[in-house]
Design brief:
The complex is a heterodimer of chains A (237) and B (353). Chain A has 237 residues and is an alpha/beta fold. Chain A contains ten helices and ten strands. In chain A, the strands form two sheets. In chain A, strands 6-7-8-3-9-10 form a six-stranded mixed sheet, with helices on both faces. In chain A, a hairpin with a 2-residue loop joins strand 1 and strand 2. In chain A, helix 3 packs parallel to helix 6. Chain B has a single domain, classed as ABC transporter involved in vitamin B12 uptake, BtuC. Classes of the chains: A alpha/beta (237), B mainly alpha (353). The structure holds adenosine-5'-triphosphate (ATP) and magnesium ion (MG).
Chain lengths: 237, 353
């Protein structure tokens, strides 16, 4: 059974119809990517899955259970962690305190310490900055912190919104390597990206979103080779 | 251990309160003893408002209304209760103090219920909108209190009246005069120290971190699994409870009259200024600001008519020189501890200065 199933989702911002009958599935253990141009509705999709937005109709099943209408903080306990667009770190808390907040719903001290260690191993840069306030980190470091913090919730499903936004190519590569590592250790990932090339490179499956609707769905390798995707999102041809 | 941890703040508060009464107060004359009480009450008000405006990042400008709700509820209980128990509304130490304590706690609870009611809209409203709701609440309380009936002062009438009638006989626009003067340095500082212990524990625990994260970024906080609504309402209820306690202390203090005009938005603003001046989120900052802003108008009394202008200019220059308040979110004891870490005082998005 799929870990996440989104069925016929409609989301409105007032009169704006942002998602129009969107459906997608995320199989357990996979990286699934959602690509599309600016304003296509990618962020809206993730926010609706984590209940930061309420759909006007449609259903979302996590592990076979409907989660529509359940508050965000309960979904974290169920195992859905969202690293929101624009990072959403706590600027006045230190890096270490930010990580600690990531584990807010957990009580297993030993497990938390192990996951913190793992996050710091994935992002050695954070280890050097532990006592620094998060607001003084560079954009890339903040992104690392946002991902590391989401990992501390030990999610079953990790929602990543444009982790490569505004980062230097070298750092982008590091981030995608880490996304692969996180997935290899058993976390399912739904990855929203503008950088279609990198996203399709790490993902197992991909969806292409255009103005609120899925226009293509296929295995990531197949999408990366298709003419439409190459023209529209990979800037080829 | 857990039991000790639960009662120790109260034991500590009692000891400290007696130290204030018998150690500190005798050093001053009667006039300064009243100032000491004023300071204590303002500490309770500033530190409790800081829970909402500083910790939870909501912006309430109606704190005096909770003070009024608590003060009137407690005042009605001691005043009419005294007639029933003692036959008059004079101070009867011993039994009377027990009545006063009970009335004060009830006043706090009534204010807490009001805080819950006002806290609920804070689930949907942010920043300026919430501020307007709290301001509106303050005005409603003030107008309703002005509409109440005259205070009864004949024993026979009071004993014959129903509870409902008594609850409406709160003095209207003239104020609720004739309350017994139970407020002492001991009582004031008992509540002030109790609140301080609660506030410090709240801030330094994991809970406190959760409060700060709600204030910093509500969406990210809920993405961490924090029930942001619960935190905000909890802050409102706790803050209103202590504002109600402060209201009772104010109502039973010598030289004050419980009166709707005194507890209008002017008073609310005074409390907001203390929190902003001390630094939103800084407990010691709120305490220091409460002390300074209670004493300042007194010391400026010499300057007579220019007093309020000087006071205003001091505040304005303070806000220009240190917009984050005296301490920002930090505490006095943290000022020198982490010089190596630069903490920029980034204002959380959506919050008012
Ligand atoms: N709060 C809002 N109020 C009104 N309209 C909104 C709001 N948020 C998003 N929209 C609109 O909904 C549509 C989808 O926005 P969304 O943020 O989901 O796009 P996106 O695919 O994440 O784009 P980007 O790649 O630029 O981040 C856009 O047309 C946007 O203007
Ligand atoms: Mg987006």
């Amino acid at each position: 059974m799929a870990l996440l199933t989104v069925k016929q989702l409609d989301v409105h911002y007032g009169a704006i119809h942002a998602l129009k009958g969107l459906s997608l599935t995320v199989e357990a253990g996979q990286i699934v990517t959602l690509i599309g141009s600016n304003g296509a509705g990618k962020t809206t999709t993730l926010k609706t899955i984590s209940s930061l937005l309420r759909p006007t109709s449609g259903d979302i099943l996590f592990d076979g259970q409907s989660i529509v209408g359940r508050p965000t903080h309960e979904l974290v306990r169920l195992g859905i962690a969202h690293a929101p667009e624009g990072r959403g770190i706590f600027a006045n808390l230190t890096v270490d305190e930010n990580l600690e907040m990531g584990a807010y719903v957990r009580r297993d001290k030993v497990g938390i310490a192990a996951d913190r260690e793992r996050a710091l191993t994935l992002f050695p840069r954070l280890r050097e900055r532990l006592t620094q306030s998060a607001g003084t980190l560079s954009g890339g470091e903040q992104q690392m912190l946002a991902i590391g913090r989401a990992l501390l919730a030990r999610p079953r499903l990790l929602l990543l919104d444009e982790p490569s936004l505004g980062l230097a190519p070298q750092v982008v590569r590091t981030i995608f390597d880490i996304i692969r590592d996180i997935n290899a250790s058993g976390t399912t990932i739904l990855l929203v990206e503008q950088n279609a090339h990198m996203a399709l490179g790490v993902a197992h499956f991909g969806y292409v979103l255009e103005v609120g609707q899925i226009v293509m769905a296929d295995r990531a390798e197949t999408l990366a080779k298709s003419d439409e995707v190459r023209k529209a999102y990979l800037g080829v041809g | 251990m857990g039991y000790l941890r639960a009662v120790s703040p109260f034991l500590g508060a009692i000891v400290l309160a007696f130290v204030m009464q018998f150690g500190v107060a005798p050093m001053f004359g009667a006039y300064y003893q009243k100032l000491l009480i004023d300071i204590g009450i303002n500490i309770v008000l500033a530190v409790s408002l800081n829970l909402v405006n500083g910790f939870a990042g909501q912006f309430s400008i109606g704190h005096a209304a909770f003070m009024a709700v608590g003060g009137y509820a407690a005042g009605a209980i001691t005043y009419y209760g005294s007639f029933h128990v003692f036959g008059d509304a004079l101070v009867h130490h011993g039994q009377g103090d027990v009545l006063f304590l009970a009335a004060t706690l009830v006043g706090g609870c009534v204010a807490a219920v009001a805080g819950w009611v006002v806290g609920l809209p804070s689930l949907r409203l942010k920043g300026d909108y919430l501020a307007i709701v709290t301001l509106g609440f303050g005005e409603i309380v003030r107008v309703l209190l002005q509409l109440t009936d005259d205070v009864m002062f004949k024993r026979a009438d009071i004993e014959a009246a129903s509870v409902g009638t008594l609850a409406l006989a709160l003095g209207g626009a003239l104020g609720f005069g004739g309350l017994p003067f139970y407020t002492s340095i001991v009582w004031t500082y008992f509540f002030a120290f109790t609140l301080l212990v609660i506030a410090v524990r709240l801030k330094t625990s994991g809970e406190g971190r959760a409060f700060l994260s709600v204030r910093e970024n509500e969406i990210a906080a809920s993405a961490m699994g924090i029930d942001t609504t619960r935190y905000k309402v909890r802050a409102f209820v706790l803050a209103a409870f202590f504002a109600g306690i402060a209201g009772s202390l104010f109502a039973h203090e010598i030289g004050t009259t419980l009166n709707p005009r005194e507890l209008g938005f002017q008073k609310s603003f005074d409390i907001v200024i203390m929190v902003v001046l001390g630094g939103m989120g800084s407990i010691s900052g709120a305490v220091l600001a409460a002390i300074v802003l209670t004493l300042l108008p007194e010391f400026l009394r010499e300057a007579a008519s220019y007093r309020m202008i000087i006071y205003a200019l001091l505040l304005i220059s303070m806000m220009i020189l240190r917009p984050q308040g005296l301490f920002g979110v930090r505490e006095v004891w943290e000022l020198y501890r982490r010089p190596k870490v630069s903490r920029p005082q980034v204002r959380p998005p959506g919050s008012l200065p």
